Prior knowledge:
TIM Barrel, globular, binds zinc ion, alpha/beta, 10 strands
Amino acid sequence: MSEFRVIDFHMHVYEKPWKPWVIDYLRKINPTIDYTKPITEEIILREMDSARVEYGVVFAESTPEVTGIVSNEFVSMLCRNKRLIPFCSINPVKSEDPVAELEYCVEELGMKGLKLLPSYMYFYPNDESVYPLYEKAAQFGIPVVFHTGTSIFRNVRQKYADPLYLDDVALDFPDMKIVLAHSGRGLWYNTASMLARIHENVYLEFSGLPPKKLTDYFPNLEELSDKLIFGSDWPGCNLKKLVEDFINLPLSRKTVKKMMWKNAMKLLGLE
Ligand SMILES: [Zn+2]
């Protein structure tokens, strides 16, 4: 497996404990973490080393109803090591000035991308009130990760997680790099796949999906090889095992290489 370099495009951290229902869920999946204490640089790098992950994209979270708050400041501080790539999170429903907030995160905190969770924040991705934020993200040339697909956490409003609304966004912001986190998990795999096929800057990211089912959900992965991105949703997984399972998927080695490394590095302007 050492022939494959790996970047994980979907990692979580926290400073204060997440909501109890999030912790209960994570404890079942990954009991190796103490969810009452903040995640530190040492913990996350140790996990990455054990799984041979070179780089990790780390998300802030501005979703007080569902998981909690992981501040942009905390994430940017945690990501001092260049293997950790900080993405900010801005809640367009609650923020008084989302555009100014994004400017602050990118220009002052040095964050490299934006994470939005429409079903945790309660907005339709194609709501034009959010367009100024997209315009700014497109101007910065940073990737915007959208949570798509169903979630089991309390207070999630699933309707906002349908990736179809991102069709408008991809048309109206053709230069904005859109990453579909979870690739429409549960109900909308075909929609996600269609969007990645027809829109030049839409990508499929596979965190939170069982690797063994991936080729059933997406029979056309080889055709979409330039659009595939590996993500783990750590700590909600066994990272080492997940990386191995993805590398061993019944796909051409060229496609695996793109999915585990090349596409994400290109998206981040790192290669
Ligand atoms: Zn996640």
